Amino acid sequence: MFGQNTSGELSRTMDSLKINLKNAKHDTLRCAILTLMIEAEGDDYVWPKYNQELERIAKENIAKSDVLKNVFMKHYAYALNNIGYLANSQGDIPKALEYFRKSLFIQEKINDKKGMAESFNNIGAIYKAQGSIKKAQEHYQQCLRINSEIGNKEGVGTACNNIAGIYEFRGDKVKALEYYERALKITEELGDKRGIALSLNNIGYIYNEMGDISKSLSHFKRSLEISDEIGDKRGTITSLCNVAVVLTESGNANQAVIYAKRAMRASQDIGFPESIKNSAQALKKVFQNQNKFKEATEMYELEIKMRDSMDNDVTRKAAIKNQIQYTYEKKEAVERAKHKSELIMQQAVADEKERKQDIIIRSVVVGLVLLIGFAAYVFKTLSVTRKQKLLIERKSKEVEEKQREILDSIHYARRIQRALLPNEKYIDKNIKRLVNKL
């Protein structure tokens, strides 16, 4: 019933995403929806089709879009990373490494640090699988550095676990313990109980290798308690086997058999080959310690059978899909997809808003440039006009000045003329005087 509900929820989620994809009016939103569909779909024969569409849309928009170029480059890098992941799962290591590097190149170009960290981690895992331990550690360290810079605690925890694994492989138990404890501290800060249980198991392994049985058992048992608490059956089985093995090696086979048998029952309940194999291996050691060779042989045969079953990819996938853990993880994936859907939708809206704002800003800038140009033209025209007006005024003043000088000269001459000519009374008086003399 639980699995059916999870399957139904996943189906409804995918149907909703397909409708949204069909109705999406902008390629940023289409890319965001395709990303969700890829993450929600667990079938390796289905999600690559969505990834091909994502790659195509992103690549086309990189060539023609200036405003949202970086957004589409980020989607393109994600699509390339997915191709690398698929190649890795199919055993094509050179192709996987090629596409992980292509993805990293784009992420570095747009300074997508979170993507860069993931790519460094992926490439590090490839190198580790190839036995190139030094290169693997270098890439894991880069992953740790970037995640620390951006404050991605989950990424820091993952990087610490990977680096610890490198030191463990090299036999440097002190350094391995240091990084495993750093990872534990981060998972505790995040409240990630599944991660806490994993870190406790890792630390338990190191203490066991260092010969500190007490601390080893303490960490394995704490991991067991947490796995039981959160219903993580695979984690529970792992911790039960670890406790059984340590107890057996320390001479407490009678206690060990209790944990080993419990691990086997839980393994058979979920039908997961790897868990059955590990439980059979733990029981084999217990029975050998108790000199129960017949039972030990039976467990050894079961161990080999499960190991062969795991080598068969079809059987392995069928077993995974039939176990409760698988459905539990799928339900978590659906919940994460729903949550991420909201975030991506918001991001898509923000991207669209940014695009519109950029257009408005560009329009305003162009308008201001034109306005400034027009103002400069008007200013220049007014300056020329002002100069012409000043010239005219100066010329006018010069003309007026010359006219004034001419008028002043005329008035001056007239005054002199008037001064030289006798007035009428003077003439009349002299005429009368002359008449009287006659």
Structural account:
By secondary structure, this protein is mostly helical. It has a domain at 391-438. It has 18 helices and no strands. Helix 13 (253-270) runs antiparallel to helix 14 (273-289). The longest helix is centred in the C-terminal third of the chain and has 97 residues, at 324-420. It is elongated. Residues 1-5 and 320-329 have low confidence and may be disordered.
Write the layout of secondary structure elements.
Blueprint: H1 2-23, H2 27-40, H3 47-64, H4 69-89, H5 93-110, H6 113-130, H7 133-150, H8 153-170, H9 173-190, H10 193-209, H11 213-230, H12 233-249, H13 253-270, H14 273-289, H15 293-311, H16 313-321, H17 324-420, H18 424-437
Give the CA-based shape.
elongated
DSSP strand tally: 0
What is the ordering of alpha helices and beta strands? Answer: HHHHHHHHHHHHHHHHHH
Radius of gyration: 45 Å
Low-confidence spans: 1-5, 320-329
Rounded mean pLDDT is 82
Helix content: over 70%
Search tags:
single chain, 438 residues, mainly alpha, 18 helices, elongated, disordered N terminus
Please summarize what this structure is:
With 438 residues, this protein is mainly α. The chain contains 18 helices and no strands.
